[in-house]
Specification:
The complex is a heterodimer.
Chain A (H helix, E strand, L loop, with lengths): L1 E10 L4 H11 L4 E8 L3 E8 L2 H10 L3 E13 L6 H9 L4 E9 L4 E8 L2 H10 L3 E2 L2 H6 L1
Antiparallel strand pairs in A: 1-3, 1-4, 2-3, 4-6, 4-7, 5-6
Chain B lengths: L6 H4 L3 H22 L1 H10 L20 H6 L13 E6 L9 E5 H17 L7 E4 L8 H12 L2 E4 L5 H10 L4 E4 L1 H13 L10 E5 L5 H11 L2 E8 L4 E7 L6 E3 L4 E6 L13 E7 L10 E7 L1 E2 L11 E2 L4 E2 L4 E3 L2 E3 L1 H10 L6 E8 L2 E9 L9 H19 L4 E5 L14 E3 H5 L1
Parallel strand pairs in B: 3-4, 3-5, 5-6, 6-7, 18-21, 19-20
Antiparallel strand pairs in B: 1-2, 7-8, 8-9, 9-14, 10-11, 11-12, 12-15, 13-14, 16-17, 18-19
Helix pairs in contact in B: 2-3, 5-6, 8-9, 10-11
The chains are: A alpha+beta, B alpha/beta.
The complex binds zinc ion.
Chain lengths: 143, 434
């Protein structure tokens, strides 16, 4: 249920994101989803890829500053209100969502939401109890 | 050969050393007065004659020399011996203005070599050692000085000069280098390269003699750990001879000044007044045995402290602290004196490597200072807050050290230019404007 996300420290310099994309492309790492959290000087690039462990090694060899962060992915219906329910359930149980981002898959006709919460184990239990579909790491990596 | 190169001199009783210094000082003052019109003129302006100098205490009656004097007198104005007796020049890497050129007779080269030989023996060197010199050769004194000292000790000398890291490491492995001589920043660079390539087991270094630029205890520990050596400090300047003016013994608590050749004083950099032992001030040297270029009361611009405390190594010569800053490097930011070494200390204390750059600028008539330092990848947890907290921690530590706000920016690893010679750590954009 727990997915490994790459969190990469990137300076806000021209072409840096493209460099990182190139490094990954050369090694056949596929990007499933991404988002950038940025400040004036730097950003944290968050990536869901098909092989996070390998990607982290490659990036470190290229002197990137990388952390592997554990996140959850839920599958929701691609329609209005699909996201509100699971988020409300978490907040009702006092679980904070640090950040989230989503991607849509045509193939599965669904939307996937990556969630970063403080307590993965507790969140998994609450979501499963409420009937929310959690996506396994294998499903994401093999997608 | 034991732990001293020249035990009789290095462990000479203080009283006897004072007698030797007094005699040499009086001789040198007479000779300079006679042969160097430039300095005679300075003495006359101060109303001092050689006959006024009868003891070491009288030294303070003499006028100072500064780097500006050396530039004014360029090239021959401070020469105290006939040019035909000189056999060598060395020159400082001046970034602005005229270069400074120092002259040497064979006697001067010999005494300089001996100073470096003392440093090598103090670092555990014997004739069985392989001394790997990657200081620059040429006009810079680093290479020639340690090279000469190594010959005097009888070590196998590898005159590598600087640069070409792959070749340095290859020779180190193939020829079993045991003592490394270079700048500390290059030592750190080599250490990092050797460590990264997993070659630590193949090198045979036991000691390093590092000088010609400022470095901190943290940097020393880092180099010692990565290379498995004991790292010794060495100090010198071209104007006085070159490396070996002072050097560290195994106690590593300061550098013994070769007092049979150089008398050290600490002065208040503003008033010029001589300060008592233990007080921090500008280091001033008087050469008392050189023939060609014997500078009297030369102001080094280095800020340090002298200690006459007895040293466990048995040497009796006074010890100087590592320079705490150089008034040349000193930045005045928002009216506060800032030494790059202070910034480096903060960074190293907080677990960063010495890969940083200081940018000073003036925005709307107000000074700004920014320190860019490379991230330590292994410490990164992946959040924005992690980075901003780290930056804030450094800002607070800088404020505690310097008393002013320093903007701190973490940058990606390997993005700050590494240099193989002297590190360029400060970019003062105000100088480009003024
Ligand atoms: Zn000692």
């Amino acid at each position: 249920m727990i997915i490994k996300q790459l969190s990469i420290f990137v300076e806000n310099t021209k072409g840096r994101l493209a460099d990182i994309a190139d490094i990954l492309a050369k090694e056949n790492i596929d990007i499933r989803a991404l988002c950038v959290a940025d400040t004036k000087d730097f950003g944290i690039l968050r990536l869901i890829v098909n092989d996070p462990e390998k990607a982290a090694i490659i990036l470190r060899e290229n002197h990137c500053t990388v952390a592997l962060t554990e996140v959850l992915t839920i599958k929701i219906e691609d329609k209005p209100g699909g996201l509100a329910k699971p988020i409300r359930i978490l907040s009702d149980h006092g679980i904070n969502v640090e950040y989230m981002y989503a991607f849509v898959s045509k193939e599965f006709d669904s939307a996937f939401v990556i969630l970063r919460v403080e307590n993965n184990e507790a969140a998994i239990k609450i979501l499963l109890d409420a009937g929310v579909t959690l996506v396994s790491s294998k499903e994401i990596y093999d997608m | 050969m034991g732990k001293y190169f020249n035990q009789a001199v290095e462990c000479m009783p203080r009283e006897q050393l004072r007698e030797l210094q007094t005699k040499r000082l009086i001789d040198t003052v007479h000779r300079v007065y006679q042969n160097v019109p430039y300095y005679r003129n300075l003495m006359e302006q101060k109303g001092v004659t050689p006959d006024d100098i009868k003891s070491l205490e009288d030294l303070r009656k003499l006028p100072f020399l500064t780097k500006d004097d050396l530039r004014d007198a360029y090239p021959y104005g401070l020469l105290a011996a006939p040019l035909s007796d000189c056999v060598r020049i060395q020159s400082t890497s001046g970034t602005t203005g005229r270069r400074v050129v120092a002259f040497y007779t064979q006697h001067d080269i010999d005494l300089w070599d001996e100073c470096c030989a003392r440093a090598i023996v103090a670092a555990g060197g014997t004739k069985d050692d392989v001394v790997h010199v990657c200081y620059g050769y040429g006009l810079f004194t680093g290479g020639p000085g340690l090279n000469g000292g190594s010959h005097k000790v009888g070590c196998l000398t590898l005159p590598m000069s600087s640069g070409n890291t792959d070749r340095q490491i290859q020779f180190m492995i193939d020829l079993h280098s045991t003592i490394l001589c270079c700048t500390p920043s290059y030592a750190a660079y080599l250490a990092e390269s050797i460590y990264e390539r997993g070659l630590r087991d193949q090198i045979h270094l036991k000691a390093g003699i590092f000088g010609a630029e400022a470095w901190t205890q943290e940097m020393r520990r880092d180099i010692e750990e990565k290379l498995g050596i004991k790292a010794y400090d060495i100090y010198g300047l071209t104007e006085i001879s070159g490396p070996g003016v002072s050097f560290e013994c195994e106690e590593q608590t300061g550098m013994h000044i070769n007092e049979d050749h150089f008398i050290a004083e600490i002065i208040d950099p503003v008033t010029g007044e001589v300060l008592p032992d233990g007080e921090k001030g500008e280091l001033v040297f008087t050469s008392i045995s050189k023939e060609a270029f014997p500078l009297l009361r030369y102001r080094t611009r280095d800020i340090c402290v002298l200690s006459h405390e007895k040293c466990s190594c048995g040497r009796t010569h006074v010890k100087m602290s590592k320079p705490m800053g150089r008034s040349d490097d000193m930045l005045i930011v928002k009216g506060v004196n800032v030494f790059p070494s202070q910034i480096e200390t903060v960074l190293l204390n907080k677990g960063y490597a010495a890969n940083y750059q200081i940018l000073v600028d003036r925005v709307n008539h107000s000074d700004t200072i920014e320190v860019q330092v490379e991230m330590m990848p292994e410490a990164f947890s992946g959040t924005v807050a992690d980075i901003t907290n780290r930056e804030k921690e450094l800002v607070d530590a800088m404020r505690a050290m310097l008393g002013i706000y320093v903007r701190v920016k973490l940058v990606e690893p390997k993005t700050i230019a590494r240099s193989e010679g002297k590190a360029v750590r400060v970019i003062d954009k105000r100088k480009l404007i003024d």
